[in-house]
Amino acid sequence: MRIPLEEAAARLLAGDVVAVPTETVYGLAGSLSNSEAIRDIFRIKGRPANNPLIIHISHLDQLKPFGCQTDLSFFKLAAAFWPGPLTLVLPIEPKTILDSVRAGLQTAAFRMPEHPIALELIEKTGPLVMPSANLSGRPSSTSPDHVEADFGRNFPVLDGGTSACGVESTVMVLREKRWIVIRQGILVPEDFETVLGYIPEIDLGKKDSPICPGQLYRHYAPKCKLVLAKKFGPGIVLGYRDREYPQNEVMYLGSLRSPETIAESLYSTLRKLDEQGIEEAYVDMNFEEIGLMKTIGERLRKAAAH
Ligand code: TXA
Ligand code: MG
User: Fold this and answer.
1) Among the atoms of ligand 1, which is closest to the Cα of residue 168?
2) N vs C: which end of the chain shows fewer Cβ within 10 Å?
């Protein structure tokens, strides 16, 4: 159910949960200070309680109450990339943020989204927590239709069109004076070199003890079985427009020459498999995992891991 911005703001201030557009994916928003809204977000998504939420802000002053421990590099990153698809994890004064938001950690994750509707909304409501607006484990939502497919036609959605990036924000944390990437995303490590003077390392932690708790869980997966492959038997292939598949029926993910097109349509293509009742599909993995294709490779492996 599409609702206007004024109604979304009023509902959020009253403690409701509303789906909100961002440039990466749609978020399932609730007011940061409302414990019932937070509880409802975890319940509606079926999200494990030990997976903390990202706090979305519309200007830097909103960070003041949390006693964030920052240094100059944080301000450089914020100046260069906010608003934008970058989430920064900071040590905070724990009692200033509900335990349920940060899953009991002494840190919290912050992001300023680059979507005019999201920013206008947060100006009216104050900081909002927003996990991706999908049932836990399923592909994220990049349109209001996806949100309604997961949560029902009556679920309130603020319509901001299709998400431009299509894949989630990059999450970084400061460790011993160097930022490290703990969730790959739309921004790739090389994007930070000019601002930081180095390329942050990617450290996803160990399989059973990731640094970013969300990495523990099954993710992005359609019901359709995905077979990641470099050669294909008969059947459907998720492939690329700049390649030919004479033996197969193809669903195009985008063009390898422009990985942004692949990111943009990734989740909607995974959702389309289920909408069309397709039970099994190959995914063409003949690509070099560099830049954004490294993030996409990671998402595809997670989506295929049943
Ligand atoms: O692009 C995005 O980031 C989207 C849009 C809606 O902003 N949001 C999103 O939220 O992807 P979610 O909840 O699906 O993923 C948040 C990730 C999880 O993997 C979570 O574990 C991690 O951020 N995270 C949150 N707080 C953290 C913290 N204090 N330390 C480490 N990781 C944290
Ligand atoms: Mg998510």
Assistant:
1) 1
2) C
The alpha carbons of the chain give a radius of gyration, in whole angstroms, of: 19
DSSP code per residue over 84-123: SSEEEEEE--GGGS-TTTTTT-SEEEEE----HHHHHHHH
Give tens-digit pLDDT for 241-293: 999 999 999 999 999 999 999 999 999 999 999 999 999 999 999 999 999 99
- Amino acid, res. 47: R
What order do you get walking across the sheet with 128-129 strand by strand?
Answer: 18-20, 27-31, 128-129, 54-56, 107-111, 86-91, 170-175, 178-183, 201-202
* Ligand 1 centroid distance, CA of 145 (Å): 22
* C-beta 109 within 6 A of ligand 1: yes
First CA to last CA across the chain, in angstroms? 31
Alpha-carbon distance of 98 to 134, in angstroms, equals 23
- What global pTM score does this model have? 0.97
Residue 129, beta-bridge partner list: 30, 55
